[in-house]
Amino acid sequence: MLAYGTEKPKTYHPRLVDERLHRLLHTFGAVEIRGTKWCGKSWTALAFGESVVHLDDPNVKALAEADPTLALQGAHPHVVDEWQEVPSTWDAARRAVDAAGGERGLFILTGSSTPAKDAVTHSGAGRIARVDMSTMTLWERGLSTGAVSLSGLFEGSFEPSACDASLAPLADAICCGGWPALLGANAQTAAEVVDQYLDAMFEVSVPRKGGTSDMARRIVSSLARNVATAATLQTIAQDAALGDEFGAPAASTVTSYLDMLESMYVIESLHGWDAPVRAKSRLRTKPKRYFADPSIPAAALGMGPERLLSDGQTFGLLFESLCIHDLRAYAACMPGAHPGSLRYYGDSDGLEVDAIIELRDGRWAALEVKLGETKVPDGIRNIERLRQKVAANPAARNPKPAFSAVVTATSPFCRYDAEHDIYVFPITALKP
Q: What Å distances lie between residue 244 and 139, 218, 240, 302, CA to CA?
């Protein structure tokens, strides 16, 4: 049973990471919660905390810079919010954990960006655990019925059911995003807020990391245009040129901005998969890049729900982004999951499967994402081709998938296709 602290906000909405955070606090001296700004890190930390210090307060920051141990004063678990504002607090927390002689759950640190590599002297290994936090999933937002459990599918548990799934609510869900503060907001209000989020990132966060607002806007616009694809550095560079008289930026420049956006948890990479755990393709397949929340590319493209509904191709890409966002969060909650549990499959034959979930015990699942029911047969064919490829080399002894599924936006039923051994259900029926 979860034990929340005295600092828990009265209107706190439980999050998927709560159980893992609770478990890690009983295993490590400190835990860091990482994620993009505004995803709910501070409130989740406070939910388990007994005291707090906010290092984004200029007065508090100045004192902590002079003496980092001041930021650690308070009842345990003590929350150090936005620790990267004073990077020396990390080493101070690590030393405090060492001095406590094995005491657990002393500190909860939250961070919305990674500081420079030379800003901390110790990784915190063995002392400070890390938990990644996303914006809210459809299940957390109350927009999924939970009729289908991802962990249940791995165990062979499934019950068919009728669904009330349609495109319009999903268009709203994409444009509003999973920002906790926007629960219940309409799309127009949400769009204004996400626009402000992007402006703050471009005008404040990027310059603080040594980048320029203009180039960051160009890179983000390109990533939004190419969302859910394995766009090359050359493609992004050409997009970022925008007719600039100086031409496209160098590949090294694009790479630096991509690294910057990843360090701020604005974008996430989805790496390639192959059945053999030591396969070279796991390392050599170009990663796909997704935003931390599907509302970000929607805002970057200037698209609201109405426009999204009239542009099926873009809707499909942003719907895939929504599904990958939720699958990543759901998979992270599963026993046996690891940081690389969610991947995708792509090969030189042009076969691509949108999501592969792989657990530490070797079990894996293949999932295709299709916007409409009419595209389900395409998803089934892709999965069947993948299963045939995995089984093609008996000497490799690759395991069969624990299950396969096509995830849609509009399926009227959660069903099992016995002929093809594939489940079909809408994303609005899925839960961890």
A: 44, 11, 9, 22
State pLDDT tens for residues 76-105.
999 999 999 999 999 999 999 999 988 999
Token couple for 46: 């406070």
* Of residues 43, 40, 51, the one with CA closest to residue 265: 40
Integer Cα distance of 402 and 268 in angstroms: 26
Q: 0.90 exceeded by the pTM? A: yes
One domain for residues 60 and 103: yes
296-320 burial by CB neighbour count: b if 16+ within 10 A, else e?
Answer: bbbbbbebbbeebeeeeebbbbbbb
Cα–Cα distance for residue pair 224/400, rounded to 1 Å? 35
State which of 97, 132, 167 marks the end of a domain: 132
Per DSSP, 271 falls in state: -
6 within a domain of the structure (yes/no): no
* CA dist., res. 209 & res. 139, Å (int): 34
pLDDT tens digits, residue range 35-74? 999 999 999 999 999 999 999 999 999 999 999 999 999 9
